[in-house]
Amino acid sequence: MTDFTLSDLDAIIAARATSADEKSYTRKLIGKGVPKCAQKLGEEAVEAAIAAARGDQAELTAEAADVLYHLLVLLKACDVPLQDVMAELQRRTAQTGLEEKASRPAD
Ligand SMILES: N=c1c2ncn([C@@H]3O[C@H](COP(=O)(O)OP(=O)(O)OP(=O)(O)O)[C@@H](O)[C@H]3O)c2ncn1[C@@H]1O[C@H](COP(=O)(O)O)[C@@H](O)[C@H]1O
């Protein structure tokens, strides 16, 4: 169990995007522009899908981490706040009425 969250990673990406560290992969990728960030997300998503189809759980775990990282980088490059995505997910959950049930202890 880890308490590391997408918000934690998002904050790191925001800091690295504007850092002076030329070794930062985040800074380099965002510097290449939105199309490159989008291409990387697509590649990582395909790799995750292949790992899942193969039934390779370890590979899927690694590729899923790449997908989440590259998705957050793309959102940053596009100036779309992670909070907006989370609000959209919460809105959809509220529509189904499942939000309260999820936070209530199981019967
Ligand atoms: N989670 C990640 C993460 N996941 C994947 N990657 C990088 O994503 C790259 C993907 O590898 P590829 O071989 O597909 O890409 P590449 O050939 O290096 O690059 P391209 O020429 O294809 O663009 C690798 O260089 C990985 O290091 C990540 N780089 C950074 N992070 C996080 O971002 C933080 C800041 O990193 P820096 O910006 O490098 O300081 C780190 O502490 C991590 O928390």
Would you give an account of this structure?
The chain has six helices and no strands. It is an all-alpha fold and 107 residues long. The chain has a single domain (6-80), classed as Helix Hairpins, CATH 1.10.287. The longest helix is centred in the middle third of the chain and has 21 residues, at 34-54. 16% of the residues are buried. Phosphoribosyl ATP is lined by residues 9, 12, 16, 24-27, 40, 66, 69. This is Phosphoribosyl-ATP pyrophosphatase. Its main location: cytoplasm. It is an enzyme of class 3 (hydrolase). Its EC number is 3.6.1.31.
Gyration radius, rounded = 16 Å
Global morphology: globular
Assign the CATH superfamily. Answer: MazG-like
CATH class: Mainly Alpha
User: Biggest sheet: strands, sense, closure?
Assistant: none
Order of helices and strands, N to C?
HHHHHH
Mean pLDDT score:
94
Number of E strands: 0
How helix-rich are the residues, as a percent range? over 70%
**How far is it from the N-terminal to the C-terminal residue, by CA?**
24 Å
Architecture per CATH nomenclature, i.e. the level-2 architecture: Orthogonal Bundle
- Count of structural domains: 1
Percent of sequence in beta strands: under 5%
Key structural traits:
mainly alpha, 107 residues, Helix Hairpins, globular, binds phosphoribosyl ATP
Structural topology:
Elements: H1 6-17, H2 25-31, H3 34-54, H4 57-77, H5 82-96, H6 98-103
The protein binds phosphoribosyl ATP.
Phosphoribosyl ATP (PRT) binds next to α1, α2 and α4.
Question: Can I get a quick summary?
Answer:
The protein is built from 6 helices and no strands.
